[in-house]
Specification:
The chain is α+β, with helices and mostly antiparallel strands. The protein contains four helices and seven strands; from the N terminus they run E-E-E-E-H-H-E-E-E-H-H. The protein has one domain: NE0471 N-terminal domain-like. 18% of the residues lie in helices and 22% in strands.
Length: 155
């Protein structure tokens, strides 16, 4: 499976601001001016995103990781576990909120540590850090579509 940034012919109908750049160390100056990952964010091959596939009309986002593994996350799972304060409040717990079958409309890269996803319902404030996406992908790999029933609140 080859992962590429969301550019080119295959994504011409998909609005995207995503641009993958090579990860840099937090202490190194960043030529693109991006902010370094927040303190405590692991910067390992396991949580370094190398590519994203989210073609227009698809209902699943595929993520490639620097350790060679990949994750498949349905849009329902991504939107349902949106980590933003508007969806989750300020308690710190991430709970599943069923949003039906949401359409992913926009993907933006946040520095070199997260993705910002824009949804068909107008919601676009969730910042999905790479470690969070990896953890969600691992949990989905174990529980599949039953993840919200198995874990209504993420550990």
């Amino acid at each position: 499976m080859t992962f590429r940034p969301l550019q080119g012919k295959g994504f011409s109908r998909f609005r995207s601001k995503f641009r993958m750049s090579a990860p840099s160390t937090p202490s190194a100056p960043r030529p693109d001016g991006a902010n370094p990952p927040p303190a405590g964010t692991p910067s390992t091959a396991r949580t370094t995103l190398t590519g994203v596939k989210a073609p227009h009309g698809a209902r699943v986002m595929e993520l490639g990781w620097a350790d060679g593994s990949s994750s498949r996350l349905p849009h329902r799972i991504l939107r349902g576990y949106c980590p933003c304060a508007g969806c989750q409040g300020h308690s710190g717990a991430i709970r599943f909120h069923d949003a039906g079958d949401p359409e992913l409309r926009d993907i933006g890269q946040v520095g070199n540590y997260a993705l910002e996803l824009g949804w068909g319902d107008g919601h676009a404030t969730g910042i999905y850090t790479f470690p969070f996406l990896r953890r969600l992908g691992d949990l989905y790999g174990v529980h599949g579509d039953r993840l919200p029933e198995a874990l209504p609140e993420l550990p």
